[in-house]
Batch of 2 targets.
Target 1
Amino acid sequence: MAVGTAAGALGAWQLASADAGGAAHSRPLDEGAVRRALAATPHSPSASPSRPAEPTERAVERSTVRFTGGTATVECRPDGTVYLLSWSPADGYHIDDDVTRGPSPTAHLEAEANDDDAHPDLTYEIHCTRSVPHARAVPEPDDD
């Protein structure tokens, strides 16, 4: 009973709060009322139709490249260089701290196995071809 009384009081308050211009309504508008309301709405004099953006050479493309030791999110830049934004190891691996992230023609990272017996360490070179990143395993550099 209290819920019904509260709902009735709320409805009465909404009707009493409606201004004389009809800005608040207690029921939905029909299609004709919507059209009349839209026609009566003043248009902004500063509004102008949008025009297509000027063509640019090429935009920076961001994508994720996957490889056995993990994934990397990269930017393929218009000048053909690559930049590593972030990287994440796959299960059983961690990414070595010695990462060459760019921007440069190629980026490098090493996915090291958490358990040397289960997986080999994998060194990757990442580059972009036509704004598409590619990762390929390369021989591990000598530490000499």
Target 2
Amino acid sequence: MAEAFVNDDVHHMACGVCPSRRFPVGGFDVYERPSKECPFSPEDGHRYAADGTPVCVHPDKVGLPVGRYKSENAPLAVTLELPTAEADLVPYLRDLLYGAAPVLLDDLIEQATAQIPRSFPGVDVLATLRRALS
């Protein structure tokens, strides 16, 4: 079996009953919030969709966008949406990158590297990313 997405990290924000602590990315779905579509199982205290798919209901805590990764084989992807003001760029990138799941970081950095010069031609991309990640 593949390694769990949140592997023995007691400091991770994921709930103790989150499927991210038992399954790899793609081994569970991520819903926007708790709902009747994914009730707690009285047998084990975990949430499941009607088809038995394990469900996380706190995308912000696991750093993954909402998606039906297990039940519908949805691709794991996030779209970078840069702010309109240059002054907001570093804070936006800091929040985005620190809140994102590690599996998303390479893609987010690639998107930032491509988009920043188009949106902010005078900005040093590498310096901006360093400030955001420092």
